[in-house]
Specification:
Shape: globular
Radius of gyration: 28 Å
Distance between the termini: 71 Å
Strand content: 5-15%
Length: 591
Amino acid sequence: MFKGLYQMNTRCNGGRRVDRDRVVAHEVQLDMNGRAGQSGWRKSSWGTRYWYDALALFFLAAAVRFIGLDHTPLHDELYHVLAAQSWLENGSFAIDEGSYTRSRFFTVLVAGFFYLFGDSLLAARLPSFIAGSLLVPVVYVWTRWSIGRSAALLAGLLLVFSPLMIHISQYARFYALQGLLIASATFIFYYLLHHNFRRHTTLMRTALLGFVGFALLLANHLQITTMIAVAGIGLWFFVFVLYQLMRAPKASRKPWIVLLAGFAGLGLVAVAALFNGTAEFYWQSLNNTPHWGKSAEGSLNIRFYHYWLLEEYPALWSLFPVLALLGMAKKPAPVLFCLSIFVVAFAFHSIAGFKAQRYFSYLMPFLFIIWAAGGSVLLPFLGQQVKKILEGEWAPLKRFMPPALQYGVFISTALIFFLLSTPAFPLVARMLTRADASWPENALYRGAADWQAAANALQGKIGREDLLITTSGVMARYYLGRYDVELNESNMLEVDSGKEFSRDYRTGHALISSGQSLKKLMQCYPRGFLVAEERRFLRAPRIVPPQTVILVKQTMTQMKMPRDSKMLAYMWENDEAKLTDECRRLIHRRE
């Protein structure tokens, strides 16, 4: 293999250089004329090797994402799980006395997988697992068609081994499906504008356009950040149509005028949205910061995503402008398309309210394509420079090592150094090899508290008449079978009244935060329990105020929890407690 790579980089005689330059220039001209990458669809090659590449990447992505698919769950996953159980039972999205209706299609999808494979966390994660695995060949196919095979392979491998993309593919939440829908819709939209449709029927074109609209609407149903991607597509579409209109002969301008008129119509719709409250709703939603996240640096720092990318991909993110320019030099149209979506969305997310890596996940395919396009230009050039060094200054090494082997050793060393010094890749290695219990509690992607271990330890100790309080209602509901009150100031302030003993609309249970409210409950019930995650109880002052933590430690007895479970449990006993009508009214407990 190394010998072949070496020989490929030695083909640099004058005639071949000129031919290659002419080919690149011709491809650039095709890009600027809106016909980028059509040569990539040659039937002689596309139907064989390149589909094999796509399948190989899909199976590789699926294998990587299957490892650890049964990891300890995160809090938000269980909203869909519990609502999906209700959907199977009676067609509702009920969780006890409440209802969880966010992204209902995804909940129904989870319910469908429960029906097929049984009720389990593994089954709940299968929709994300499948969507995250399919995203890789989708990115490969479009990148191969629009830019080239080397860029497609690089982009595919970056997606396969991205810690964030692995995480959302193992998360019973809608982010992986949203990313697949956005990528598929945008790639087909680009294809519609750049492909010669004489071989396609009107029905086919209509079907593709219909899919684009349906996919974006469904993605927006899952997560409203989809509208940010649409804004990036809109900017690119306007520039593209305007460019085509300016360069087209007068006799052939009519289609572009029609498209520009259509874009103007969409602009009028956007202006109308400013007056009917739609735009205000989206803006408020993007700037909504939950109470628990207001103390986080990301809620105020507009450079949050910059720092995160610099932390996980320091070399690639630092070289982003250079790689983007190199990619545009090779294939300007598709790289500009990805840049428009990524840059617009990066700016929106940076100035938005609460920030989290998962909100950014749908943009990673476009970023990886930009990096891969630039890398497909940069890496062959660097290979040629290595060849010159090996043939020049290091020529004496030929006595001990053939040039091809020298080349292989040098490239392998450089690649290993890059992989080890880019934190994202060692992080993936840890995700694939280390158990959740060994992760620190504040780690990204993994290391959640082990509620199953706590449930095993508490089995038979909590009676039906005892009051059960928790900091994570849905976790207690799933693992302990019930709970009565949630001690969570952030959730309390997010409901309509925002006062002590408010009802969580998602579950119908009472919410408290203060020590005074906790004392009331301790005076109502002769015995009760508080079950909580260490992080959410001890080190999250916007979930449990410090004064409440002190009261718990002073008035309750701590119970022993399994080692490395990251769980806490406390118990109180009060023989003088009296369950009055006022007590029942406060918590509205179902007997």
